[in-house]
Amino acid sequence: MTVSTRFIHSSSSMAAPVKKKGDMYKHQDELPPLPVPSLKQTLDTYKKSIIPYYPKGEKDPHFLKYGKVIDDFAKTQGPKLQERLEKYAVGKRNWLSDYWDNLAYLEYRDPVCPFVSYFYAHKDINTVIGKDQLLKAACLTSETLKFMESIENESLEPDVLKGTPFCMESFKWMFNNARIPNQIRDLSPRFEPKENRFMVVISNGHFYKFYHHNLETDTILSLNDIYAGLASIQQASHNQPAPKNPIGVLSSSHRDKWAENYQELIKNPINRLSLHDLASSSFVLCLDDTFPNTFEERFRTMWHGNGINRWYDKPVELFVTRNAVSGFLGEHSRMDGSPTARMNDHIVNQVSKMTLEDFGSADESLNTPILFEHLKFEVNAKIEKEISQELVTFKNTVDSLDIKVWHHFGLGKKQIKQFKVSPDAFMQMMFQLAYFKYTGTLRPTYEPASTKRCFNGRTETCRSVSPESLKFVKLWENPSVSREKRVAAFRDAVKAHIEYVGKASMGYGCDRHMFGLRQMLQPEETQHEFFTDPINNYSSHWYVSTSNLSSDQFIGWGWSPVVPEE
User: What's the total number of domains in the chain?
Assistant: First the structure.
């Protein structure tokens, strides 16, 4: 379909010059491979990390007993597994990547939404553009497409922190990619961008394929044209009732159930083409008809929405509501949050600077065809029944999850730094103290440490609970302890946390290494008691998960609990 309606203004702005191809990956050859830590280092790190979970600490009889098990593992099965892992790692720049992507994500069977995906809620933009749904959506789309092209032509500046380059491999999974349901292990194909110059827009539960490039010149449509396309799609979607059988909710299913329904859907050639377009599209934009106002309402919009106006299998899914609240949801299989946080930080910052003049004049794009088409789905009786069931399941699932927001404006990172304390370590200790105040104990706490300074690095676990953090919270809650001793305990806990983060970010935490050692077990081999002792599972059962990627362009971010307990 060709659309001619455009948002018109009187002037235009100059496009930034395109950088030469190659900058994005210029540091890749410098990156070290992900190391295989020594067995002793990992076991020492692990042994210290579990001390807080025993009532009497390192003097506890149960800890002493398990300590002997760890020592036996270090002499018997451990060296064999270590040798195999080191041999497996030879010639690989990242020995973990295939195992981790598959076992931690693509083989994970619970619904990706709400249990795996993560969200960012964009800050409000107090401008004409920032208060209008379609203007804001057009600007976010335009800036996202520019970011996409900077990855495609490799002109995106590489991530460098304090002179240390970080791996850029995961950026290539951001666009023209999707998770596709499959039994046992989902698929995650990447499609050729230049062959798929379209996005998917979801409005009123209907799906539209919108070509965001001029197919003759292979250039991004102007803001006017993007606005025109979105406006026409929104109008077309509301000129008909919402779909009786909203196909989007199926992507919220248990992955095995979704794989079964997916196979049923693609028996129909129309469905097969529509699902292929969804998978190969650059990204998804959802135009919601809601008016979220409170922080909880906004965050629930980004976190899971209504299950209908969504497609949860895309790495990049943007939302703009009727009252111009916007945000992002990310499918997690091939990327952690840092690439998408960088993109969202950039696009929101750019949109906050834009004015109506950026839309240009009407005559600049009058001859550009604007193409979109309604993606059709034909639903048989089996799929109709499944959709009905999944709508109920989705509602029950999201209703079982709480989200509460507290704002404290009295302390920020600049003030924390004045006390010569890492803001991250400070907050991790505050989480520990708050949890201790609430429950009277500490439980396993997860913080990701980025290993992107290694080639194709993703994350390592930083175990925030330590003997030092336990001592800190106990002393802090004891009114008979002097202020000086409490502050000293706090600083000791912060120091221990920073040391762990430093080791983990270089690939020398204990969790990924122990994961790798498990993968080296042969089918006929029995696991050593080191792996089967209850504390091994308990110490990595993350009652508290503290992942975060903050930005001045976000009002919040979040994800689901990763274990069923509180």
Answer: 2
At residue 432, φ and ψ (nearest 5 deg) are: -65, -45
Domain end call among 343, 375, 399: 399
The answer to whether residue 490 is domain-embedded is: yes
Q: Is residue 193 part of a domain?
A: yes
**Given pLDDT bands bounded at 50, 70 and 90, which one contains residue 247?**
very high
Q: What is the DSSP secondary-structure string of 157-187?
A: PPPEETTEE---GGGGGSSSB--B--SSS-B
Give just the sign of the alpha carbon dihedral 305, 308, 309, 310. positive
Per-residue DSSP letter, 545: E
Cβ atoms of residues 554 and 125 within 8 Å: no
Q: Are residues 181 and 298 in the same domain?
A: yes
The model's pLDDT over 32-79, given as tens digits with 9 standing for 90+, comes to: 999 999 999 999 999 999 999 999 999 999 999 999 999 999 999 999
Tokens of 455: 């080639």
Mean pLDDT across the chain, nearest whole number?
93
Residue 214 covered by a domain: yes
Mean pLDDT calculated for residue range 14-34: 76
Q: Is 60 exceeded by the pLDDT of residue 11?
A: no
Side chain identity, residue 447: E
2 pLDDT higher than 80: no
Predicted TM-score (pTM) of this structure: 0.93
Rounded to 5°, the CA angle 443-460-470 comes to 25
**Which one-letter DSSP state was computed for residue 57?**
G
* Strand, helix or coil for residue 371: strand
Please classify residue 72 by burial: count the beta carbons closer than 10 Å to its beta carbon, then call 0-12 exposed, 13-18 middle and 19+ buried: middle
Residues marked active site are found at 332
The answer to whether 233 and 287 are in contact (CB under 8 A) is yes
Residue 453 structural domain: 35-92+414-559
Q: How far apart are CA 14 and CA 358, in angstroms?
A: 9
Cβ atoms < 10 Å from Cβ of 136? 24
> For residue 461, is pLDDT > 90?
yes
CATH code of 172's domain: 3.30.559.70
CA 327, CA 299: separation in Å to the nearest integer?
9
Q: In whole angstroms, give the CA distance from residue 562 to residue 548.
A: 14
